[in-house]
Amino acid sequence: MTHLFSTPGYLALMALQRRIHAFTVDAAAELDGDIDRPDLPLWTSVYQYLAIAPLHGGLHVEFFGDIWSEPFEWTLACLARQDVADTLVSLAFTGPDEGANGTREWEFTPLLDSGVQFPRLRFLSIRPTAPEDHNTSLIVQAGSIMEEGGEIARFAAKAPYLTDLVVPNAPDAAFFQVPLPQLSMLRIGGGSDTQGFIDNLAASRNLPALGLLDFTESTELQFTWAHSRPADAVTPFAAYERLFASPALDPVHSLRLRNTCLSLEELQALGAMRPSLQFMVMQATQGGYVSHFAQNVFPWQHLVQADPGRQG
Length: 312
Hints:
Helix content: 25-40%
Strand order of the largest sheet: 1-2-3-5-7-8-9-10-11
Number of strands: 11
Number of helices: 9
Largest sheet: 9 strands, mixed
Oligomer: single chain
CATH topology of the domain at 97-286 and 295-303: Leucine-rich repeat, LRR (right-handed beta-alpha superhelix)
Low-confidence stretches: none
C-alpha cells in the first residue's frame, strides 16, 4: 500500500509549499528585509504560506496569502490536479486583511472550471470577514463585479462528502440543488447580498443532516442608511417565519443568527415555533472609524452603546 507521504499528490503539495516560501523570501529581499533577523516583523504584505498536516488518513491544507499574487494562482493550479485532490480531507483559505475598494474577492473560477473532484474532502473553509477587517471578504465569479454567480455551489458539488462548510458570503439558489447528504455544519458570513438565503433554505431538501446553521445578515444594515437600501437587501421577518415552519429546519439542533435587526418580539415568536432549538443571536458587526461618525457616512449608532448591564 502506498504511504500518504510518498504519493504524487503529497509531493506536489510539498513542492508548492517550497515554491511559495521562495516567493516570500524574494519579496522580503526586495523590501530589504533580512528574514534571518529575529526582530524582523512577519510582514503580512509579503508573508504567504501553505500549511500541510496529516489528518484522518488524508491531509489538511491551508493557504494563507494574497488573492491577486502568484502563490494563489499556483495553489489553485495544484489543487486542480486529481492526485492532489485525492489526498485532501480538509481545505482552508485565509490571508491578510488586504483588498481593493473595501472588498477582498476570492476567485476560485479557474479551479472550479477544471474537472477535478474532491472525493475525500470533509471540511472546506474560506475565512469570513472579521469585525476588525477593513475589507469585506467575498467569493466571486471571475470577470464579474462582486457577483457570487453560483461559485459556492460549484465548489460544493466537487465535494460530495462535505460535512463542514464555512464561506464568507451567501450562495445563490443553485447551492440548494447540490446533493449534500453529509453536510452537518454550515456557516454563512456577511456580505451585502444574502441572495435570498433564508427563503432558499426554507424551500430546500438537499441538507438532511444539517445540525448547526450559522447565518450572518446582510452588511447593508451597517453600511447603508435604511432610506437608501433596496427593499430586499435585508432578510424580512416573514422569511425567518417560513424557515422556522419548514421541514428544512427539522434536523437543525443549533441556529446562530448574526447581526440581524429582528425585534425582541420577533425573536421570541421564532423561539416559540421551535422551543427545542438552541437558538442564539449575536451582534458582531464590522467596526467603523470614529472620524466618520460626524459625517454620517454610514450607520454608526450600533457602535456606540450604553452599558447593557444596567436595568431600567
